[in-house]
Specification:
The chain is an alpha+beta fold. The chain is about 50% helix and about 15% strand. It has a seven-stranded mixed β-sheet. A six-stranded mixed barrel has the order 5-6-11-8-10-9. A hairpin with a 6-residue loop joins strand 9 (about 180-185) and strand 10 (about 190-200).
Length: about 850
């Protein structure tokens, strides 16, 4: 390495970057944008990754140990129990839990011990809207031993057995605030809400906190009910050692020690050993990560390449003068690479600093939308240093091609102001075609994500290699376009070495966006198809007894809580096994009715599908709309004609279905009934019987549930109101809510389109800037022959549309293969989100052209102004 030459080149590059601030800022933005995003994301990720001490503080507060009672069983545990689930036991229960004084007697002298209680049953209470439930924890969290488990949002901690604090989420859902009365079902005196708290690990938790005395001490019980419900937090004068933990295990205590958790003993001293390191990273995962990083770096290189080409073209005359006075090719290359090193280092440093600042600002804004609070603000220096080095390396990679072209500069032609025509050698499109073919083959043959990514990478590289030839081929059709479009296409063909990276950058972004959009849409469609709804729509089902008074009370409660929801009484065979008949004297006095399949001669097992409705429903045509969630004319016509409706085609033989009626107290019998098979989006039951067929079956109909058809998901207040109304009926009722399939990922395709649009616009505008610089003589000629001043803006818009349009069309077509292969490898049908694809193919070029028109001056230059 010629160090003096590099020092001189770097000084000149820094001076040139300062002189051309606009171009420098543009390059810094392009190279630094990914570094900015990664640095901000890295800082936020590290901030949300709790340290072991932070994890302990949120679970056991400021204590040194947390002991939980296991019923006196002999315990074997891991140092991280209960975090890693490493708890085993043997023996039999020895009775109720010990007192706090007995636990203190086990600990070192001078220890501070406070009890911890968790009720195994939910606390049911009256809310502002009705009836609600929450977890109940007994803990004096104001004690210094428990400091850090919860944060006091408002009010204070409970100081007596009549006071409680509630979490923020519960206060919001139940309409509670400090000073309110909390009336608990089954408790004569209400609690007074004296505080609102927040659990750091679960911001959506709904819990009531009181003193330990509000949670009754359980008597002798099963081990599963004892574990975690009774415990103690202890601050000890000395650390709790692994020897202490093992000795307390033999007495029936599961112990989480701060000292042991932070410094676990070797595996040889652990009776139960779990490898907390997790499974080793597979070679496939490493390959996948490498391909993703490589494709991301390639995209950045393609984005920044036109920017350095702009700088190199602006300095063409300077480089030619350098060559004329004796500079060699190495000097010319070094000059361009020095620009990249200076701008890459600046971009990395600035982007990293901005990323840290953005993470600091975003941290409190993001925290309320996540499940847990972040830890301390963490800035990982080694990670950020690596990102700065990536920025420099990316800039150097992006500048390699401009540097090579600068080294091959035609000094005479450049100083004379002549521009040559670039031709593409035939071998590059040939190599590109071979790579694309291999990539498509690998993509469809691969069964894993790493193989699909490898295929995508080969497709991208192949198209990039063939892009100059493709541009030249498309430029031949310029004669069919208006003047500005013809000039834009011919400029792209003449300066294809500079235009190709921009087109390739747009293409690469659109390939990824197309594949991701189709993959997300197909995965969403598959999940929607596989979603097994319990009810036909976003409905509510309340199971009832057969007594008219109970039925009327349930219907009235539904109408009060959901006034806009029409209700339908669901009937089944009297004595049916779903649900247990409240009028039956014995739970065994029920009747199973199942469909017999002729082909297999086996009986269908009742309840083997997900519907919350009975296996056998008795209904007429008027109930079809509510049962199916849509109009089913075929089902309505069959029921009106006295025919049964079944959901499986195999149940039909010669227009009839055979039903197996199995009373528990007598011999099963078969009955053949006329039937029609109806395929629908939702199958409410195995068989729907019209009332007229019941006499042939020897059974009668009885109401078993009330179905409310809702237009939207019931709110928490509506659910609380319904719970209160049902509690007043005097009978327990099971309520089923169907929230329907949640389209959590419906925005994903458009998010990828937005990311691709951002990349495409920058790439196209950069290439447009380069074309405007290179095509200035054409503008002078247009001005000389009397062209309109607006021609310059129209030409700039045409150039942007050509680059963005070529990249979007090629990328969309190329993205279909990997998307189809990935979707089929996941055994799903290919679903194309046409609105998102239309935005890619049409929207991005239009937006890019409009932006180019906005930021381009309308006036034409003259020879004198040059």
């Amino acid at each position: 390495m010629n160090r003096p030459a590099w020092r001189a080149s770097l000084r000149l590059a820094a001076r040139d970057a300062w002189q051309h601030k606009t171009r420098s800022l543009l390059v810094i933005a392009l190279v630094g944008l990914p570094v900015f995003a990664m640095s901000a994301g890295d800082v936020l990720y590290r901030t949300w990754q709790l340290s072991p001490n932070e994890t302990l503080d949120r679970v056991i507060g400021a204590s040194d140990a947390w002991l939980t009672w296991s019923g006196g069983l002999h315990i074997q545990q891991t140092p991280g129990a209960p975090f890693d689930g490493g708890v085993g036991w043997s023996g039999t229960d020895s009775g109720g839990p010990p007192s706090t004084a007995q636990v203190a007697g086990l600990l070192p002298s001078g220890s501070s011990v406070i009890p911890f209680r968790r009720s195994p049953d939910p606390l049911t209470f009256y809310s502002a809207a009705g009836l609600d439930s929450a977890s109940l924890i007994g803990l004096d969290y104001s004690n210094p031993v428990a400091h850090g488990i919860v944060d006091q949002v408002s009010g204070r901690a409970p100081a007596s057995a009549s006071e409680v604090a509630v979490t923020s989420q519960l206060a919001t859902e139940a309409g509670l605030s400090v000073g309110d009365r909390l009336r608990v079902v089954g408790r004569p005196a209400p609690f007074t809400v004296v505080g609102i708290v927040r659990e750091k690990n679960d911001l959506g938790d709904t819990t009531v906190y009181g003193l330990p005395s509000v949670v009754p001490m359980p008597g002798p019980a099963r081990t599963a009910e004892m574990l975690g419900s009774v415990g103690w937090l202890a601050r000890t004068p000395r650390p709790v050692t692994w020897h202490d933990v093992l000795s307390w295990d033999r007495l029936g205590y599961v112990t989480l020690s701060r000292r042991v958790y932070l410094n676990p003993p070797p595996a040889s001293r652990q009776p139960m050993f779990t490898d907390d390191g997790g499974p080793p990273i597979s070679g496939r995962a490493i390959t996948t990560a490498t391909l993703i990083v490589g494709m991301a770096v390639l995209e950045i290189v393609l984005l920044a390449g036109p920017a350095f080409a702009v700088g190199a073209r602006r300095r063409t005359r300077d480089l030619a003068l350098l060559a004329a006075v004796g500079g060699g090719r190495a000097d010319l290359r070094r000059s361009v690479l020095a620009d990249a090193a200076v701008l890459g280092l600046t971009a990395g440093a600035v982007a990293t600093a901005l990323g840290i600042a953005t993470a600091a600002v975003a941290r409190p804004l993001i925290a309320p939308h996540l499940t847990g609070e972040p830890g301390s603000f963490t800035v990982p220096p080694l990670d950020l240093l690596g990102l700065v080095l990536v920025s420099v390396a990316t800039a150097l990679l992006a500048a390699i091609l401009p540097a090579v072209r600068a080294a091959r500069l035609d000094v005479v032609a450049t100083l004379a102001g002549r521009r040559g025509t670039v031709r593409s050698h035939w071998r590059w499109p040939a190599i590109g075609g071979v790579l694309v073919a291999i990539g498509v083959a690998i993509t469809f043959a691969a069964g894993a994500s790493s193989g699909v990514l490898l295929g995508v990478a080969l497709i991208e590289v192949g198209i990039i290699a063939a892009t100059p030839a493709l541009i030249g081929l498309v430029a031949r059709g310029a004669r069919w376009l208006p003047v500005t479009g013809r000039m834009a296409l011919r400029d792209a063909g003449r300066t294809r070495a500079a235009a190709s990276p921009a087109v390739a950058a747009v293409m690469a972004a659109v390939i990824g966006a197309t594949a991701a959009a189709i993959g997300a849409a197909s995965a969403d469609a598959k999940a929607r198809t596989m979603y097994d709804a319990q009810l036909p729509g976003r409905d509510v089902l309340v199971r009832t007894g057969t007594r008219p008074a109970d039925l009327d009370a349930v219907t009235a409660a539904l109408h009060k809580a959901l006034p806009d929801a029409p209700t339908t009484v669901v009937r089944s065979a009297r004595g049916s096994c779903f649900p247990p008949d409240s009028d039956s004297s014995s739970p065994r006095s029920c009747t199973d009715i199942a469909v017999r399949y002729p082909a297999s001669a086996t009986d269908y097992v009742s309840g083997s599908y997900n519907s919350a409705l009975p296996n056998v429903v008795v209904a007429g045509p008027a109930q079809v709309r509510a049962l199916f969630g849509r109009t089913e004319p075929e089902a309505a016509a069959a029921l009106a004609a006295g025919r049964a409706v079944v959901r499986e085609p195999a149940a039909i033989a010669d227009g009839a279905a055979t039903l197996l009626i199995s009373p528990r107290a007598s011999t099963p019998r078969s009955v053949t009934v006329p039937a029609t098979q109806v395929t629908s989006r939702f199958a409410p039951a195995e068989v729907i019987l019209p009332p007229g067929l019941l006499a042939r079956l020897g059974v009668s109909a009885a109401p078993v549930a009330v179905l409310a058809t809702t237009a939207r998901i019931p709110t928490p207040a509506q659910r609380q109101s319904l719970a209160l109304g049902l509690s007043r009926t005097g009978h327990p009722h099971a309520t089923v809510y169907e929230f329907g399939y949640q389209e959590s990922a419906s925005w994903v395709p458009f998010a990828f389109v937005g990311g691709a649009a951002f990349i495409a616009v920058f790439a196209a505008l950069l290439a447009t800037a380069l074309a405007n610089v290179d095509g200035r003589p054409d503008l002078v000629t247009l001005a000389a022959i009397g062209a309109s001043p607006r021609t310059r803006r129209a030409l700039s818009m045409s150039r942007a549309a050509v680059i963005a349009g070529l990249g979007c069309v090629i990328g969309t077509v190329a993205g279909l293969a990997p998307a189809s292969a990935w979707v089929r490898s996941n055994q799903a049908a290919v679903v194309v989100p046409w609105p998102a694809v239309a935005l890619l193919v049409v929207g991005i070029p239009v937006v890019t052209a409009l932006l180019a028109g906005v930021f381009t001056r309308a006036g034409l230059p003259s020879e004198r102004s040059g």
